[in-house]
Amino acid sequence: MLDGYSSDEFPPLNGNGTSTCGNFAVAILLYLDNELKGRELEEFRAHVDTCAHCQAQLKAEEGLSRLLQRTRPLYSMPPDVRARVSAAVAQNSAELPAADAYSQATLPSVRRLRPGIGWRLPHVRVLVPALLAIAVCLALVPNIARQVEAASYTQTAVAAHRNYLSGSLPLGIQTGSPQVVTAWFAGKVPFDFRLPAGDAVPESEPVYKLTGAALVTYKTRPAALVTYESKTGKISLLVASSDSAVVAGGDQVHFDKLTFHYRTDAGYRVITWSNHGLSYALVSSVSGPAGASCMVCHQDMTNHGRSQDPSSSK
Amino acid sequence: MRLEPGEGHPQPGFDFSEYLDGLYGYALILTRNSADAEDLLQETCLRALRAIGRLRSESNVKSWLFTILRNIWLNQLRHRKTTPEMVDLDADDHGANDPPDPSKDPHAIYVSELEREQVRAAIEQLPVEFREIIILREYEELSYQEIAAVLECPPGTVMSRLARARAKLRELLPTVAAAPHSPEKDKHGNNEAVA
Fold first, then answer.
1. In this complex, is the C-beta atom of B18 within 8 Å of any C-beta atom belonging to chain A?
2. Whether the Cβ atoms of residue A313 and residue A194 lie closer than 8 Å to each other
3. A262 phi/psi in degrees, rounded to 5
4. Which residue of A52, A294, A295, B30 has the fewest CB atoms within a 10 Å radius of its CB?
């Protein structure tokens, strides 16, 4: 008997003049759920053994249970619906007050993360040893998980840059003003993001000019994408919280208190670094020395070389 | 960005993306319209995001989400003018999108999908109170207590309603439910015939 149920809601199992086969349906459900114990189970079995009608009903219910289990899951969200729901939630989440939007609730991901309840994992006998092997490798090889995470951030930055180049990533705002971009991101991203006001050499033409920005997501969390143009190419800067975006690997250059990671990915130059809780990924096709990309924020480097931390503008 | 003083602390690492498929199926069962189901699901997610900080740590997140969804649906029903119910469930659009199990032969895959379509069609013929209880119990595997909380009725009522729903479903699926499944083996290890 399940706790919390009153006797008038739960028909008695045995026949004390109050139970009929018609009330047996609920008892069958409890039997199929393995909820019948002790005396109730004995009485149930005794009744089934002597009642052809209830035997048939039990068999029919067992067949239905098998069928329903075989047909799990009954519905699955189409990918386009999932994408629309995720996008709508992400957009609305950025507009919610801070206390609501940036609780630790994770926005629904576009990707299906794992099968839902009732789904059967195929090849469990293969999957479990494989997972154990992967776990052992991760435990024995230091930093491999961190490298994988960093590669994910780099690849995401490159993908965003490609979309920017192809025109398939619409800018949320088009402006050449760092102050306007900074103000635009306020309240949209869960971190304090500010572009440097610009330290271009006075009375000289900027090497790169700011063109705009877009609100994107990384691992379901809002992130900032800032875009630049020059005569020779385009540059994009992805900024995300270090809670979700890991920076590691590549050729490392230490400058002041920062470590810059240089790498080439899919033909693009990528420089990543983290500072004050934010992770940055600068993507470009700029040829020449790696420091050339730094001039998106530090125009004076054309004359003085690498001079200051690009992300130290506070 | 910080929580206001006095705000309840949200559960760490809360991620309801794993519940989306189940919520979507429940929304489809309630609305019987894919567009309405999508809207209902979106609204549920947004409401849940706003309220997550007030969720007690011991709360069952899944039943909480299903309760939100149902309450929104009920409110929509109350405010909606009477219109003809538009049934827009195309099994091809809402069928499970799992990749085929390579351990199954094509015939078995076909039979599985056929069964799924038959069950969906049968469930969709049930009254809404039967449809939702079948989904919540048989597919989402909520406990009787959890279903009682979602439906705001006693657990005993849940069980009796489920029994009636299953009886009605068996009437609509007389051959599919009764026949043993092929090509799984029966208890004697023999291949069972297709119904």
1. yes
2. yes
3. -105, 135
4. A52
Identify all chain A residues contacting B4, using CB atoms and an 8 Å cutoff.
99
| Residues of chain A contacting B112 with CB distance shorter than 8 Å | 70-71
Domain residue ranges of chain B, discontinuous segments joined by +? 16-178
Give the closest residue to A295 by CA, choosing from A201, A215, A217.
A201
Please give the structure tokens belonging to residue A29: 């459900």
Q: Tell whether the model's pLDDT for residue B92 goes beyond 70.
A: no
More confident residue, A304 or B65: B65
Question: CB distance from B40 to chain A under 8 Å?
Answer: no
A277 contacts A265 by C-beta, under 8 angstroms: no
Give the pLDDT confidence score for residue A169 in this predicted structure: 80
Pick B16-178's CATH classification: 3.40.30.10, 1.10.472.10, 1.10.10.10, 3.40.50.300. Answer: 1.10.10.10
DSSP reduced 3-state for A31: helix
Give the β-pairing of A268-275 and A258-265.
antiparallel
Task: Show which of residues 12-31 on chain A sit within 8 Å of chain B, judged by CB atoms.
Answer: 25-26, 28-30
CA distances from A124 to A17, B63, B101, B103 (A): 50, 28, 12, 12
> What is chain A's percent helix, strand, coil content, to nearest 5?
40, 20, 40
Place of tokens 């189409």: A78
Distance CA B135, CA A277 (A): 44
Q: What's the pLDDT tens digit per position in A230-279?
A: 777 888 999 998 888 888 888 888 877 788 888 888 778 888 988 888 99
Cβ separation B103–A122 shorter than 8 A: yes
DSSP label at residue A8:
T
Q: What number of residues does chain A have?
A: 314
User: Could you tell me the CA-to-CA distances from A84 to A101, B24, B40, B77, B124 in Å, in that order?
Assistant: 18, 13, 13, 24, 25
Q: What is the mean pLDDT of residues A288-309?
A: 53
User: How many Å apart are CA A51 and CA A55, to the nearest integer?
Assistant: 6
Q: Which whole-number Å values give the CA distances from A168 to A163, A165, A224, A241, B56, in the listed order? A: 5, 8, 16, 24, 42
CB contact under 8 A, A104 and B120: no
Report whether B61 contacts B16 (CB < 8 A): yes
pLDDT tens digits for range A113-136: 344 444 454 455 655 565 665 665
- Distance of alpha carbon A22 from its chain centroid, rounded? 50
CB-CB under 8 Å, B164 with A5: no
Backbone angles phi, psi at A227, to 5 degrees: -120, 145
Q: Which residue of A has its CA nearest to B41?
A: A85
Give per-residue pLDDT as tens, A50-76: 999 999 999 999 999 999 999 999 998
CB contact at 8 A, B73 and B30: yes
